[in-house]
Design a protein that fits this description.
The chain has one domain. 55% of the residues lie in helices and 0% in strands. It has 9 helices and no strands. Helix 2 (31-37) crosses helix 5, helix 3 (41-61) packs across helix 7 and helix 8 (174-187) packs across helix 9. The protein is globular.
Length: 211
């Protein structure tokens, strides 16, 4: 029932997206960009939550065990401090993608051990209702989309997953990605409370940009 409340908002947002063009693909979102943007705690948390959600989702889809574990869900601010310290310690690496640097730092700091109970994620995952709420706001949707697609590209580059799920055209834009996600959510309201935020973004993008 809660998901139905977003139907009109999703339709309206999809129909009134600002003609803002962005040629920047996720690979262009660097560690330096992340350090700067994470001065905003809200945007920083959205990025990290979506990155970890996508990381976990892609490992499940590929039937591969992830290498980031936690005994219980972590505080995003504390995780960011760990990541920021790792980034600051190696300024020479800041031109690399934000996703690869963040996930690398997380795999070191939250490495999976043996014989201990772990959660499936560093963070409690958000669902599609949260995603619908956030993506009606361009500024809040942007870090989520960058994070999900950056996680996907990073795991492809690392050969952690056997194949790509999304193949973005060079000319695709952030505005188009957002429109596609909003359209998918509006057409699949029954999925909003069932699936995680990142899994819905990945599904929408894989359908729009299949490999």
């Amino acid at each position: 029932m809660r998901a139905l409340l977003f139907a009109a908002a999703l339709v309206a947002a999809a129909a009134t997206i600002a003609p803002r063009d962005s040629a920047a693909l996720p690979r262009g979102y660097s560690g330096a960009d992340l350090l700067q943007n994470c001065a905003n705690a809200t945007l920083c948390e959205l990025y990290m939550r979506a990155l970890v959600d996508a990381y976990d989702t892609l490992h499940v889809w590929s039937n591969v065990r992830p290498r980031v574990c936690a005994v219980q869900p972590q505080d995003p601010a504390a995780v960011w401090r760990t990541v920021a310290n790792a980034l600051s310690a190696r300024p020479d690496r800041l031109p690399a993608s934000a996703g690869s640097l963040t996930l690398d730092a997380m795999q070191v700091a939250y490495r999976c051990g043996t014989g201990i109970a772990t959660t499936t994620s560093l963070f409690a995952p958000r669902d599609g209702v949260d995603l619908a709420t956030q993506c009606t706001n361009f500024a809040l949707c942007e870090p989520i989309l960058f994070a999900v697609l950056d996680a996907h590209q990073t795991l492809v580059d690392w050969q952690s997953i056997p194949s790509k799920f999304v193949c973005l055209p060079e000319a695709s834009t952030l505005a188009e990605w957002r429109l596609n996600v909003l359209k998918y959510l509006g057409e699949h309201l029954d999925q909003l409370q069932i699936h995680t935020s990142a899994s819905l973004v990945l599904t929408a993008m894989a359908q729009k940009y299949p490999c």
